[in-house]
Design brief:
The protein has 6 helices and no strands. By secondary structure, it is mostly helical.
Length: 159
């Protein structure tokens, strides 16, 4: 696989940075929407998440594959398009990136009660089912447009 040619250290740093950017910008948009009285709107928050994922695929896709989500890393490994030996380091880097972004947001918005957390609005089973279906759709799209090792190009980031 092409990913094996890129050092694991470079891949882990890229995944950590990409996940940091996703959480900091996406969750930060939720927080900013809350503190601004809804100026960004739900559509604006969704665009922030989508555009940061697109930017990270373009920026680090050729280094690490820009998984920036443990579900993506596991999906590629299960599909035999990513080596299992790199799953734990990738997920570790993604967790570190997400925690660092959350800590940075906590330092910036000390009074915000939920810090952009996703809070269910329906029954637990309904929310879980919705999450599973949406994750399956996301994984289907990602697995159809990406190869898991090196992502570059318009199709991978737009999808």
């Amino acid at each position: 696989m092409k990913a094996a040619r890129t050092s694991i250290a470079r891949c882990v740093i890229a995944e950590c940075f990409g996940t940091f950017a996703l959480v900091f910008i996406g969750t930060g948009a939720i927080v900013m929407n809350d503190v601004s009285g809804g100026v960004i709107t739900h559509v604006g928050v969704a665009l922030c998440f989508g555009l940061v994922v697109m930017a990270m695929i373009d920026a680090i896709g050729d280094v690490s594959g820009a998984h920036i989500n443990p579900a993506v890393t596991v999906a590629f490994a299960l599909a035999k398009r990513f080596p299992w030996s790199r799953v734990a380091p990738y997920i570790g880097a993604q967790i570190v990136g997400a925690v660092l972004a959350s800590l940075a947001l906590r330092a910036l918005f000390t009074d915000h009660p939920t810090l952009g957390a996703t809070i269910r609005s329906g029954a637990q089973a309904q929310s879980f089912t919705l999450e599973v279906i949406l994750t399956l759709i996301l994984m289907f799209v990602i697995l159809r447009v990406a190869n898991g090792a090196k992502e570059r190009g318009v199709v991978a980031s737009i999808a």
